[in-house]
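Appendix B. Chain record.
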Amino acid sequence: MPTFQQCLDANPAELMSLGISIGAAAAQLTALGTSYGSTVAGLAASWQGEDYQALVKWSIEVATFIGRSDAAMLTCAGGLEGVGASLMATCIAMKATKQAAEAAGYKVLPTPFVILGPSQWSQVSAATVGAPAVLAAYQAGAIAFTTALVSMYTAIIAQDTAGYAVIRTALALSPS
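Structure tokens predicted for this chain:
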């Protein structure tokens, strides 16, 4: 499970790039399998007998292996691209929310938890008679920012878990 700071520092675009690369590798594997199958089929005109039949049988096993590998790679590629995009959106929103809280004078702790900052405490102290109302308003803002950050942090953990599940699924599909 990533920490709050790791979420803020994350670059989910790398997951999306990895997904694209795995998809490209799957396409290359498919092309290689097609070429191999064509080559074996092309040998039929000049090669007969048990040896050729053994090669044909082996080419069927190779095609099955490639098909399972393609399925695993494409599952992984699509999942990483999708999870990367979700994580990207949530990480950007989390960073913006943290920056907005800090710009408003709040201090954001690494749990994530938002508390009043020094300038806000000064304003509460200076308010004298109205201090309870000023404090309540700032505390309501801190609660709103904390709720938003915790919600996004929870979403990132769920998205990270989903990404892990995609990879585990792809590994289960891959041929042994």
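Further analysis of this model is presented in Appendix C.
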